[in-house]
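Bench notes, afternoon.
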Amino acid sequence: MYCSSLLTLIQNKVLTWFLAAVSVFFPVMSPPSMFFRSLQDVQQGQQSTAKVRVQSRPHSQAAVLNASTSLLVRNGSVQLEATHDNASAVGSSSLHNELGKFSSTLYETGGCDMSLVNFEPAARRTSNICDTDSHVSSSTSVRFYPHDLIRLNRLLTIDTDLLEHQDMDLSPDLQDHLQPQEEASQKVKHYYRFWILPKVWIGINFDRLTLLALFDRNREILENVLAVILAIQVAFLGSVLLIEGFFKDIWVFQFCLVIASCQYSLLKSVQPDSSSPRHGHNRIIAYSRPVYFCICCSLIWLLDYGSKSTFTARFRLYGMVFTNPILLLSARDLIMVFILCFPVVFFIGLLPQVNTFVMYLCEQLDIHVFGGNATTSLIAALYSFICSIVAVALLYGLCYGALKDSWDGQHIPVLFSVFCGTLVAISYHLSRQSSDPSVLFSLVQSKLFPTSEDKNPEDPLSEVKDPLPEKLRNSVSERLQSDLVVCIVIGVLYFAIHVSTGFTVLQPVLSYVLYALVGLIGFMTHYVLPQLRKQLPWHCFSHPLLKTKEYYQFEVRNAAHVMWFEKVHIWLLFVEKNIIYPLVVLNELSSSAKAIASPKRLDTELGALMITIAGMKLLRSSFSNPTYQYVTIIFTVLFFTFDYNRFSETMLLDLFFMSILFSKLWELFYKLRFVYTYIAPWQITWGSAFHAFAQPFAVPHSAMLFVQAVVSAFFSTPLNPFLGSAIFITSYVRPVKFWERDYNTKRVDHSNTRLASQLDRNPGSDDNNLNSIFYEHLTRSLQHSLCGDLLLGRWGNYSTGDCFILASDYLNALVHLIEIGNGLVTFQLRGLEFRGTYCQQREVEAITEGVEEDEGFCCCEPGHIPHVLSFNAAFGQRWLAWEVLVTKYVLEGYSITDNSAASMLQVFDLRKILTTYYVKGIIYYVISSPKLEEWLSNETMQEGLQQCADQNYVDVDPTFNPNIDEDYDHRLAGISRESFCIIYLNWVEYCCSQREKPLNADKDSSLVTLCYGLSVLGRRALGTASHHMASNLESFLYGLHALFKGDFRISSIRDEWIFADMELLRKVVVPGIRMSLKLHQDHFTSPDEYDDPAVLYEAITTHERNLVIAHEGDPAWRSAVLSNSPSLLALRHVMDDGTNEYKIIMLNKRYLIFRVIKVNKECVRGLWAGQQQELVFLRNRNPERGSIQNAKQALRNMINSSCDQPIGYPIYVSPLTTSYSDSHEQLREILGGAISLGNIKNFIVSTWHRLRKGCGAGCNSGGNIEDSDAGGGASCTSNSATVNDSQSSVSQGGGNATVGQGSGVGLHPPITSHPVTLGTSQSAHSVQSSLIRHSPARASVASQSTYCYNSRHSSLRTSTTGFVPCRRSSTSQLSLRNLPSSIQSRLSMVNQMESANQTGVANTQHGLPSSSSSSQSIPACKQHALVGFLGTDGMTNVTDSQAGTNVSPVNQTQTKRDDVVYRIQIIDPSQILEGINLSKRKELQWPDEMIRLRAGRNSWKDWSPQEGMEGHVIHRWVPCSRDPGHRSHIDKTILLVQIEDKYVAVIETGVLELGAEV
């Protein structure tokens, strides 16, 4: 018995290895699949009886069924009892194609193992025949196995007519039962067809399910090729080490086990692996063991070969000889021990999967050797590493050639100076480039192969375009153009500095001066200023010592104000990294290069390489992130100058190696701080019983914990708490990015869901999916401003891998800084739930609560010193893994207001108001539509609306309700045309009057018929969607939401006319229901305001222009949010956790206030790694596990919930986003924009124009700057004297500027005085054309006429000479023929008032001027009144045609009496001069001393002028004015504005003219 069992075992093993070899060389492919039904479908309709009914089946089917039943009974696989219920389903459903073949759903995409049934191997069947493998009802005992199930279902589904003609790949068992009984007695065999070639296969004595359970299934031929190559490599390298005798005794057996495990992992990998970053089947993890085995074996062989070789050159650094055989043998033995520990190493998960390791290795080499940045992907890591190698190769030739040249004490070769200049320029360029080349490739592709975008007007998604990719391409293009100029300038500049021999002549004084500057500037920039700006400086003070302007503001209305210390910080940073550090590196290159390349050290070849690498690393790291560079340099100088001078290997190499060491020491510091903070006994929070056990157990292992911290810091691996407890273990190495997968949130909306699911189930209606858009908008805001804010010091000190939390009232997001370059930052934002768990709320309270009021001192409360923290508060802040940096960080975002729709529509009167606005909205949109005339002439619509045209027509649909329909006719029990006209005809007429081409809006018109038909259709659609239960609030809200998202069900035959043009639904009815919701919301603030048609029409027009109303599932909603629309409104239906609620969501764009909390980055990495190990490898599915319980000292819950799904549960994870400093407006104002060829050209041209303008104003003795702008007051002529109405056209561009207008046209306030220009003449046509061009009607003049436009594009221009007196000269008359009627009527009123006050002036015309009276004109003395209506630029051309005309004192008095008071509105508060009244230089002459004292911040106190405030202009200062009392000290006009009892001095460009008060 034992011999036979042993032989059977050997036979199975041989067969297994044979199959393994076969599966290595050939992909495992599924056999021709067979269709079968589930057992539930087969048994459906059976009665509770043991008999199987076959009478209703054909004879062949009955025979097949009997055969299958006898087969199962004979095999002992099925046992049927006397009585039973219908059996439950056995297995999952299967697919059936047209060939009638079975299709398995095994191994779906992503590696999920989904089998149809449970199964057992054939060897277990005989011994476990009584086991049950399927779920059946309690009264039924059915036992079967997968082979029998497949046989049974094949027989039940086979077309009996084709049994004799088709090869269904039946197993021999089934073929036997369909053959005569004597043939069925043959031995049963079942096998799996393994296809070698398309028509060649071999039979394997395994069924498909067993084979798939035994081996991994390779999907591609490349996987098989790679598996074969790796198997051969493992066998070859293992045999080489065994032959060489590296392993002895028992270690040979251990090594063979390692070889076997590496090879078998190619056949069947461990799923899930301890280092797998994902759930389910991971195809990459199968190659980890053989790859690491090959690497280690190769290193063992190379180190052994090196220890036996004799080196002619001995490389020594810091007293260590790297070619020492003992050192090489020690390294070899260490790797041998490591390779023998492979089973334990892979079980614990100390090595990552292969692609992660390659990315980590390239990133670490690029950062620590070449001074690069962190990378965002494997492709980015390879790209950045290759770029660094190419740069070193280019610089190596220059350095090598310079070192071969002759050197002496006072002479450095010119070639070495060229090398230094080129090194600085290349390092600067590399530091400014992102590691991700995708944007660069996209830019090159768009330039070389531009693609035309063909938009389909019928596709609503064609208008939705993400602006971010184009913005990123523009930023990259601008930076490349800037580098083209700056790199050349830098290279030439530093070449000139280095070739001047200053680095040799000024030694050693120059070195000490540079080191002192590094220490002083670095200490001030990166320590003192950040500490003074923190919320709790040095954890001692209770508030920042340097406060921002927004610190005491409850609500911020503008962007953050740039403070003086921010300007100091950015300029110190600029000088430090662009001047000081390059000079330090060049100084060390000059003093160390020859010593490094000497034969005593590294020789010329290796020395040139080390000089190049060290110089590039120091320069790139200084350009990219100089936060901790000053500490490294000062420590290195002190350490190797005063302590261990004899060990110094020149200061250049000392700085290179110490920079690597310091990065590891900083990492060790953060790890130890995290560990001590996490396990501190006075603040430990146990989340489970295991935590309570692990706390005392971890105390004796503190030494081991410290060793783990050192090792993990050396390899940059996370140190994670095991199951969230006080026991820490080292995880596998990870890049700075941390997560291997590029996971980001895919928002569910109408663009990526099926139409049926949108209408029925409303996917994505949970709060988390809908609220994710706010985090996406927050990501876009950070992309715009994050890099600039970091450079301004608003987030304190930062470095690669830092993590911050942004917390506001409802937004809580974790920001992970990944790549930090010179003027760029790549980050990832992870948004948490709005309504988080209890643990999350406790931690949010911890980061938002203040500690200033704490008065504790140990166990008592004696209080604290003013502005200083108490002892307990200061102690507690030092034992946290996070700290609050800023409490008032300003960022652009959306304020969210949600109101319950149920409360707003609870009573019938409120629903009636909504329905009324619904009908009025439909009428507005149909009349304002440009297709109205087309609809009125549509014959199909006319036929459909023929019944509605009858005056006695009434629609008696039961969906209409007298409680909610205002025009419901109680007498006729419906909505009649007559009742509709009584309520809405006035509104139809008003809307029609606002059209350019008014239509007939009589009661019997076709327009009223169309409006009536649409109103009935819209309300019937609302009733249909409400299931004809409008009286029920829940049903009404359901129908309202259905219509709001565009789900219109046309159920009545009377409404089918709408199908003639579906634009009526999309452009009229849908906007109508959406606008009604906003109007209904406005109704609560002013109930009777919208009773006036004019007010209602203006409100709808304003909302249409400024407000986006859309469903949140509509892609237009996301596009509007990402496009920074000022206001948005939506109706939200929330179905989450059993809630069914309707909310009206209102978004208003404004500046939000966030708290910025910096979290220990090693705390974040450790907790993330612990969650991944616990959920993926240990498979802990407990939703209340101890590792996610709140721990305020480490923010454990917030950090763990921010992991990638499904490990964490963030509602939004952004893609890796890069922010550039060039997009930050405030930073551009301080440092200037990008220095490109185009910007240089624009700067030169603008400077030249300003010089000409200034010189013209200063050299012109008879005029001011306005005259110089006009060419010195030269006369202007025109080609024609008059302009006909046909030669002018009104612009229809919705406010676009007309020909000849600048960007400020339309915003020019009027003037109160006008200069008298002597000796010039101006035609009436020139004045007329100027007025027409700048009138509010935005008239544009035809090209047949030529106009002289010689006024500045600035507002509120003035002079001191007064207005031009009234004359009766033909050249001083202004024709009104082409002015708009509204302006003519207002001017007529002015003429009437003037004529009433003036006597002795004859022939003054009154009344409205006619368009035919071309002789009607405006006297020159009344032109100042016209300016108040039309603007100022056109009026500056009005001059006196008679040079010798005298101005009488009477006329001057009359002019002063006619002065106009002008009103303005502040639109840019940054243009306000808050301290101009306290200037010691007294640049301005004020009209009154009391006004001066009250016109500044010293008098305003708590009040400050805000955007939107209005006031009167009482004085103005003009540049280059001849009157000192009206002269501005800058090149801009300054206005003195009175706002209530306050006085404000503001530059003219910061205000908007509201017109003159006549």
